[in-house]
Task: inverse folding
C-alpha cells in the first residue's frame, strides 16, 4: 500500500537534535536547536510557570472545548505583550488574535489565510531564514522568494539591497520579517532601519508578516517589540506570529499566537472569522493548559515579575556566553575577527563555518551545530565554552 511513499529526509534542526540525544559520548555539546539551556545545560523550569500550574491544579476546573480562536484572557494578554498595554490598535478593536499551537501553528494558519484571501501573493523571506519558514509557506501553496539580508563579509545587514528588492515587489506581496533575534544569523535591523522600512512597506502596500519567537531575548520585552509597535503606530496592516516556547520555557506545551493588525474593527472581525474557520478545518480548537499558564503568568503581577526576572537572567547569561566565547576564540586565534559574536543578538550567531567544518565538529568532537554554521549560544556554559572555542579553532 505505501511503497510509493517517499522517505522523509529528516529536518535540519529537529532530526539533528534527536541525533544529539542518541549520541553516547559523555562530552557532547548541543549547540543545535534553538532552546535555552541554563548553566548546567538543563532546560529551566520557571517558577512562575510552576506556580501557575499549581493554581490550575488546585482549582480543578472542567475542561470544555475552547472556542476556535482560543481563550479570551490569553488572547488579550498576547495583544498587550506585543503592542504594549492600552495601544490604540487594541483599544480600537482592530487586532484579530488567535491562540495557536506554538507560533509554528500561528504561522501556518496565517499562511493558509493568505493563500485563500490573497491567492496571487508570494512571500519574500530573508536570505537566510529559519528553514521552516520556506517549508510552511510552500506547503500552503504560496511561492517563496528571498530578499537580500545577511552580509557575510561584515556580519551586518545588506540594508540598501534589501530595500531595493522590497521596493520592486508587487502590491500585497508578503514580507516575512524577524521582529528580533534573527534566526539563524543573530543580526537584527536597528530601530532606525525599522523606521526607514515601515514607510516603504506602507507605501508599496506590502504585507509584513512578523515572526516574534524570541521576545525578551534581545534587549528586553518592550525593546524587542519595537518593529511590531512601529508598524501598528504607522497604521500598517500586518501579521505577527509570537511564541512563548523560549521566553517561558514551555516548548512542549505549544504556546503561541497569530495576530493580524487590521485597519479597523470591522475588518478585524472579518479576519478573525476566517482565522476561526481555518482553525476549525485543521484542528478545531487549541488546547487549554499551556495558554492558561501563559495568561496567568502575563496577568498576575507577582508571576509576571518573577517571569520578567527569569527572562532577564536568561538574556544576561546568553550575553555573558557571547563575551566568554569571543574572549576564548580571540585568545586562541588573535587577529581573526570574531566580533560578530558581540554584535549579534539572541540565541543564535552565524559562525561562517562550512557544512564540512560543522560535520567535523560533530564527528570528531561531539559538538552539534546546524549545518548552516548557526550556533545556539545558550548551549554554552562555563564548563564547555573553552572546549568549544578550541574545537572551532581546530576546524577553521
Ligand atoms: N519562529 C522562529 C524564528 C523560530 O526560530 C522557531 C523555533 C519558531 C518560530 C517555532 O517556535 P514554536 O515553538 O512553534 O513557537 N526555532 C527553533 C526550534 C525549531 O526549529 O522548531 C530553532 O530554530 O532551532
Result:
Amino acid at each position: 500500500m505505501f511503497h510509493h511513499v517517499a522517505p522523509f529526509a529528516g529536518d535540519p534542526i529537529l532530526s539533528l537534535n534527536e541525533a544529539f540525544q542518541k549520541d553516547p559520548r559523555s562530552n557532547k555539546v548541543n549547540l543545535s536547536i534553538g532552546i535555552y539551556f541554563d548553566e548546567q545545560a538543563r532546560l529551566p523550569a520557571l517558577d512562575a510557570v510552576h506556580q501557575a500550574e499549581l493554581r490550575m491544579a488546585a482549582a480543578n476546573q472542567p475542561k470544555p472545548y475552547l472556542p476556535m480562536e482560543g481563550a479570551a484572557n490569553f488572547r488579550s494578554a498576547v495583544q498587550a505583550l506585543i503592542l504594549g498595554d492600552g495601544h490604540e490598535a487594541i483599544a480600537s478593536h482592530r487586532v484579530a488574535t488567535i491562540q495557536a499551537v506554538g507560533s509554528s501553528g500561528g504561522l501556518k494558519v496565517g499562511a493558509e489565510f493568505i493563500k485563500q484571501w490573497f491567492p496571487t501573493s508570494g512571500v519574500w523571506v530573508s536570505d537566510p531564514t529559519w528553514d521552516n519558514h520556506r517549508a510552511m509557506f510552500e506547503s500552503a501553496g504560496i511561492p517563496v522568494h528571498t530578499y537580500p539580508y545577511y552580509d557575510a563579509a561584515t556580519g551586518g545587514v545588506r540594508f540598501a539591497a534589501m530595500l531595493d528588492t522590497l521596493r520592486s515587489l508587487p502590491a500585497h506581496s508578503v514580507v516575512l520579517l524577524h521582529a528580533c533575534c534573527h534566526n539563524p544569523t543573530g543580526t537584527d535591523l536597528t530601530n532606525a532601519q525599522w523606521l526607514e522600512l515601515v514607510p516603504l512597506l506602507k507605501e508599496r502596500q506590502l504585507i509584513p508578516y512578523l515572526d516574534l519567537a524570541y521576545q525578551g531575548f534581545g534587549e528586553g520585552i518592550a525593546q524587542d517589540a519595537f518593529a511590531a509597535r512601529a508598524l501598528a503606530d504607522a497604521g500598517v496592516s500586518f501579521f505577527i506570529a509570537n511564541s512563548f516556547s523560549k521566553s517561558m520555557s514551555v516548548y512542549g506545551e505549544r504556546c503561541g499566537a497569530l495576530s493580524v493588525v487590521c485597519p479597523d474593527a470591522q475588518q478585524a472581525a472579518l479576519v478573525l472569522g476566517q482565522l476561526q474557520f481555518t482553525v476549525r478545518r485543521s484542528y478545531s480548537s487549541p488546547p487549554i493548559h499551556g495558554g492558561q499558564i501563559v495568561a496567568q503568568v502575563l496577568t498576575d503581577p507577582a508571576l509576571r515579575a518573577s517571569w520578567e526576572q527569569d527572562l532577564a537572567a536568561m538574556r544576561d547569561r546568553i550575553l555573558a556566553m557571547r563575551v566568554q566565547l569571543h574572549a576564548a576564540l580571540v585568545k586562541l586565534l588573535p587577529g581573526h575577527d570574531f566580533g560578530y559574536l558581540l554584535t549579534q543578538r539572541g540565541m543564535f550567531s552565524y559562525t561562517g563555518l562550512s557544512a564540512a567544518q560543522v560535520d567535523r565538529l560533530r564527528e570528531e568532537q561531539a559538538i552539534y551545530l546546524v549545518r548552516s554554521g548557526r550556533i545556539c549560544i545558550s548551549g554554552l556554559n562555563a564548563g564547555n565554552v573553552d572546549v568549544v572555542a578550541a574545537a572551532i579553532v581546530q576546524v577553521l
